[in-house]
Amino acid sequence: xxxxxxxxxxxxKVVSGHTRSESWRxxxxxxxxxxxxxxxxxxxxxxxxxLQKPSTEAFFEILSLRQELQxxxxxxxxxxxxxxxxxxxxxxxxxxxxxAEPLGCxxxxxxxxxxxxxxxQPLISALAAGxxxxxxxxxxxxxxxELIEQLFTKYFPPDIVKVCQGDEYFAAELLKHKxxxxxxxxxxETGKKVMSAASKYLTPxxxxxxGKNPALVLKDANIDITAKRLIWGKSINSGQTCxxxxxxxxxxxxxxxxxxxxKYYINSFYGKEPQKSKDLAKINDHQFEKIISLIExxxxxxxxxxxxxxxxxxxxxxxxxxxxxxxEESIISDELFGPIFPILSYSNFxxxxxxxxxxxKSLAIYMFGGNEQEKNQLLSSTSSGGxxxxxxxxxxxxxxxxxxxxxxSGIGRYHGKAGFETFSHLKSILKRPFWLDLKFRYxxxxxxxxFMSKLMR
Length: 457
Description:
This protein folds into two domains: 4-209 and 405-429, 3-Layer(aba) Sandwich (Aldehyde Dehydrogenase, Chain A, domain 1); 214-397, Aldehyde Dehydrogenase, Chain A, domain 2, CATH 3.40.309. It is 41% helix and 18% strand. The chain is built from 15 helices and 18 strands. Helix 2 (22-38) runs antiparallel to helix 5 (117-128), helix 4 (55-80) runs parallel beside helix 5 (117-128) and helix 5 packs across helix 14 (416-422). The longest helix has 26 residues, at 55-80. Keywords: NAD, NADP, Oxidoreductase. InterPro entries: Ald_DH/histidinol_DH, Ald_DH_C, Ald_DH_CS_GLU, Ald_DH_N, Aldehyde_DH_dom, Aldehyde_DH_NAD(P). Residues 24-429 form the Aldehyde dehydrogenase domain. It comes from Prochlorococcus marinus (strain SARG / CCMP1375 / SS120).
């Protein structure tokens, strides 16, 4: 178990000013780059062992981290510079600025679905901002977690980055300590516990949670490409992606055609027995029973359109299309986080938007088709972490684009500059000289209020 004095050792590294320089920060990022470049095979093997991820999908985790590191390499100097702020006339010749300073020792709790990327990506931001960190990888991805501990123990001293493995009870004990920021990726129920624990010390938090991301297909959408992208987004990592489309709203005029195309692409991507495909990741062990029970319930209710085949040995499930009548059905009461795709038809755009607004705010909304007026209507009448038109999931691949949720889908954001600012305190600075000291600011007050109003315009 981590001890309080160990956390203080990490915090003192920051308080002492040791981590302030740009050269120190770049040195830490270089170490992470070395970890990735020199251990790519080991990383891919660990992801395969934990989730049987196809090597192409597993490589996305590495690619995402490399993109993030490249962005920091290019922009860190600029982000670290003081940002000058305009000073009103009555405060001149003062100079105002904002500087980004480190927070201290931060806690990063990783997720099991993308266990390498979602543990290291916030770490990149934290170190670039001049912090030290304790990493708690997910116990549900043991091979990757063990690899992370081995590599960071080798490359980083424990007063810069300390990796701590353990289960949910260990995490609860860890959260009893005082940190300077807590970054958590996972489910909303656990996120509530993290937020509650953080409240003891008023610790700032970032919660990356997910949510029931709706996909909306209008009748003018390109049906072939829409179907292809929807099946891809729902099936990568077997649907175990916080940005995956959760359920589908499709205009009734194109519902049958779209479903046929979706069935075609399931077969095209994964063959006649998708549950045996090497290109389909397995369902995580602690998620598998939930997915099976949802499929069995849909089978009993005769709602399965396509799929539903189960490979209990490899813990794989064929991408499954399910018909639903409304968004109140139990199958979508929670985020699915699996290769199950409920489909609901709608008759007009406004009713579809009402359906979206009736749900909690999601991490993403996807819309296929539509003119500029309809796109603007979606943007202005719904709230979500982000919106993507005519595609799914890949918005997370833009390093400069802030990533985060709203409401039950999360608090705070990261990626690129947003991550740098999340792990920084933006300190406001005002510098004034002694040589100009106007008497009218001091009692007894003699200045005319109308004159003061003009001066402060």
